[in-house]
Specification:
Helix content is 30%, strand content 24%. With 440 residues, the protein is an alpha+beta fold. The two termini are 18 Å apart.
Length: 440
């Protein structure tokens, strides 16, 4: 009885956001209002699937990592049978943070406060001096609270507290594009065990997500980077962002449920993505050795498959995949966000391939993300400082009639479109206004 009451004790007030949306626009308060942020953390990050970890990070029984679902600290574990669990990182006794390590392997999780211990599935395994606990509290919820739904799609672990959709239903068209991203390297499995690069930003998390499939900003925000690459190496990498780049076969797609993709593959992989990649440490020696060991054709095939994917794949609300990297959004407050970049490697490939991947993954986070961070923080300042300017424009290419359904069945528009923002805001509103479910 008490256990069920505790589980249902936090409910969502019903919200309607009619006043915050207009044709091709959203209201600044969606980025600046602390109450809206609080509601997002409860409902949005409590009523849909949230990416929490990759299976390669917890390959063995007893392995764990600590992550976040919105503001909720969670422990992602693999039990002795190999099953996955997402536990709320809060001791059921007095509420202390239970696990204070980022990762590791544990037989049980023991609270440093009073030494209550819990298994990988969240079950309470021990309470010191048990004679002190009487029958009057037998129905106390001694086990850890945990996410009701945990599923993995091709190694990507997602959790949900309250949802009526399966993970596959939630992913929708994004599953197909995630398959394409993974299947660039047949016979290899993805490994995410190389650490992460965190960026702490003074901005709302949606200012970051706005940019996840924004092709409009590239030649302007990253002008110095593109100019440097062009001056040193010529027509390499993303140098095609010049002139009327909307006339090029670069596009953004709406994959449903707030998921989107910016697709640069038609140009990046038109010939050889590897050969248009700019110079990086060890490039010539690695290429030469792979040619010698594997032959030029097989070497180039592996290198093309390991060069940046040419797609920005965004799985709403917190997972972004760019190049060979995984980005995860961690909201901190209404105007603070952490973005973690996770590098990836592959199994069953020569070590030179993973060396190349690592060198490339050091590139944009170091030289491009700083441009973006400056813009995200500048957006937050402007949105907070000037209340008289109420609206944020997300209407680019709404009326240009240049959109169409692609051969894969997904709606696409030119790369400078705001389609990404319109798609995810639609999903945001659907979830935030929903009166179904309602447990946090």
């Amino acid at each position: 009885m008490l256990k069920e009451a505790a589980k249902n004790s936090v409910t969502y007030a019903e919200h309607v956001y009619d006043d915050y949306f207009g044709e091709g626009r959203v209201h600044r308060a969606l980025y600046t209002d602390a109450e809206i942020f609080k509601h997002e953390m409860l409902r949005l990050f409590g009523s849909t699937w949230i990416y929490v970890a990759h299976e390669s990070e917890i390959p063995d029984a007893g392995d764990f990592v600590t992550r976040r679902m919105g503001l909720r600290s969670v422990i992602v574990t693999r039990d002795l049978d190999g099953d996955l669990h997402v536990l709320f990182n809060r001791c059921s006794h007095r509420g202390a943070t239970l696990c204070r390590e980022e990762s590791g392997n544990a037989k049980v999780f023991t609270c440093p406060y009073h030494a209550w211990s819990f298994g990988h599935d969240g079950g309470c395994r021990g309470r010191p001096l048990p004679k002190g606990f009487g029958a009057s509290t037998d129905d106390f919820p001694y086990d850890l609270s945990k996410a009701d739904h945990v599923e993995s799609y091709r190694g990507f672990i997602f959790a949900a507290i309250d949802t009526k959709l399966s993970l596959k239903e939630h992913l929708g068209g994004a599953a197909e594009k995630l398959d394409e991203w993974l299947d660039r390297n047949p016979g290899s499995d993805l490994v995410v065990q190389n650490g992460s690069m965190p960026f702490e930003m003074r901005t709302n998390w949606k200012c970051v997500y706005d940019n996840a499939a924004d092709g409009y900003h590239v030649p302007f925000s990253h002008e110095s980077l593109l100019r440097m690459l062009s001056a040193r190496y010529g027509n390499v990498d993303i140098a095609y962002y010049e002139g009327d780049f909307d006339a090029l076969p670069l596009l953004v797609k709406d994959l449903g449920n707030g998921h989107t993709m910016l697709d640069q593959r038609p140009l990046m992989h038109a010939d050889s993505a590897w050969e248009r990649q700019h110079v990086l440490p060890g490039r010539e020696s690695i290429w030469s050795k792979l040619n010698e060991d594997l032959g030029e054709e097989e070497a180039l095939k592996l290198l093309n498959g390991s060069t940046g994917s040419g797609m920005n794949l965004n799985i709403f609300p917190n997972l972004m995949i760019i190049g060979n990297q995984i980005q995860v959004l961690e909201p901190v407050s209404v105007n603070e966000t952490i973005v973690r970049w996770y590098s990836t490697s592959l199994t069953n490939v020569p070590p030179e391939i993973n060396a190349v991947r690592m060198r490339m993954q050091e590139d944009f986070p170091s030289f491009g993300e700083v441009d973006d961070t400056a813009n995200f923080e500048a957006c937050q300042i402007g949105l907070e400082e000037i209340p008289e300017a109420e609206w944020v424009h997300i209407g680019r290419h709404m009326d240009s009639r240049l959109g169409e359904t692609d051969t894969d069945g997904f709606w696409k528009e030119p790369v400078s479109t705001d389609l990404h923002a319109r798609a995810y805001w639609q999903a945001w509103r659907t979830i935030m206004e929903s009166n179904e479910g309602g447990k946090a």
